[in-house]
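Page 37, continued from 36.
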């Protein structure tokens, strides 16, 4: 059974994880306004109102993508399936570094041009629209097709990296306090130590972090919330796949929790020259109660 990302007004299959993560939609990518589009095509046609099919840019790299529904195969799509990956392209090179600069890639792609074909199924009318990657993203996110031709300012929504930045740390700490306090009653945990991990469901980097933490801290109670559910806000809003995972640890002191997080997320470089490990908890998320002076975990290795 096909799975879809939550938070989008249109049906966005999880097979589109890379295009959504980097806000880069390429030739042949197609979105429908209903998940019923991925059922038997003759039945799907009774439910589809609109679709967006990307005409350009051309395919640059191999990304995880959902296949179009059986029956909705056009000549363009067949050509795309046979396209050759261009490893030498700037887009291809950059996307392979997504583990470290996904936020900047998302922002950079937001304003880049995209040419799409918008189809209205009842009237069988199709028209070509030149727009931007960010407007395609937002149209399927909010279900507002007028966005595709809106020439006004169009700010980039906030990503997980936004909350990791120092200037946002205070907001996350302060706004999450009532939520953390509520855990004592809701989860019957006295004086919990909590690690908050902002992450994006579309990025393998964040999914791996989540899995490693869950494995390393098996007794933690894990709650996953959208930013707005814990009163975290941003003037541009957050991407719809943004989540904050709270790892709630009972009878675990701050320093012990920091060591567990380090064990899960830290991998020292093979060619480093220093004998001292430096791991910043705050580079990944935040520990409650806050002890900022202790966010760097150091360990001197013996020769």
């Amino acid at each position: 059974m096909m799975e879809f990302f939550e938070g989008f007004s249109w049906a966005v299959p999880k097979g589109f994880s890379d295009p959504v993560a980097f806000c880069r939609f390429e030739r042949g990518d197609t979105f429908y306004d209903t998940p019923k589009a991925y059922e038997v095509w003759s039945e799907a046609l009774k439910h589809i109102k609109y679709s967006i099919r990307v005409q350009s840019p051309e395919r640059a790299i191999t990304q995880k993508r959902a296949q179009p529904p059986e029956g909705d195969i056009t000549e363009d799509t067949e050509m795309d399936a046979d396209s050759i990956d261009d490893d030498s392209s700037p887009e291809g090179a950059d996307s392979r570094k997504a583990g470290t600069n996904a936020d900047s890639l998302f922002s950079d792609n937001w304003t880049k041009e995209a040419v799409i074909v918008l189809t209205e199924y009842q009237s069988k009318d199709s028209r070509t629209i030149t727009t931007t990657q960010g407007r395609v993203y937002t149209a399927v996110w909010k279900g507002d097709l007028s966005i595709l031709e809106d020439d006004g300012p169009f700010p980039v929504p906030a990503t997980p990296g936004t909350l990791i930045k120092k200037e946002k740390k205070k907001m996350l700490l302060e706004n999450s306090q009532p939520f953390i306090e509520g855990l004592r009653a809701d989860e019957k945990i006295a004086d919990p130590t909590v690690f908050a991990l902002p992450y994006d469901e579309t990025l393998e980097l964040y999914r791996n972090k989540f899995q490693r933490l869950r494995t390393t801290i098996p007794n933690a109670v894990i709650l996953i919330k959208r930013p707005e559910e814990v009163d975290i806000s941003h003037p541009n809003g957050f991407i719809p796949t943004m989540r904050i995972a709270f790892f709630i640890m009972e009878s675990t002191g701050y320093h012990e929790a920091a060591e567990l997080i380090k064990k899960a997320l830290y991998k020292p470089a093979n060619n480093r020259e220093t004998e001292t490990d430096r791991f910043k908890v705050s580079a990944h998320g935040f520990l409650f109660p806050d002890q900022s002076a202790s966010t760097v975990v150091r360990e001197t290795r013996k020769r």
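Strands lie at 30-32, 50-56, 113-120, 125-132, 193-200, 221-225, 242-249, 276-280, 286-288, 296-300. Flag for discussion at group meeting. The radius of gyration is 22 Å.
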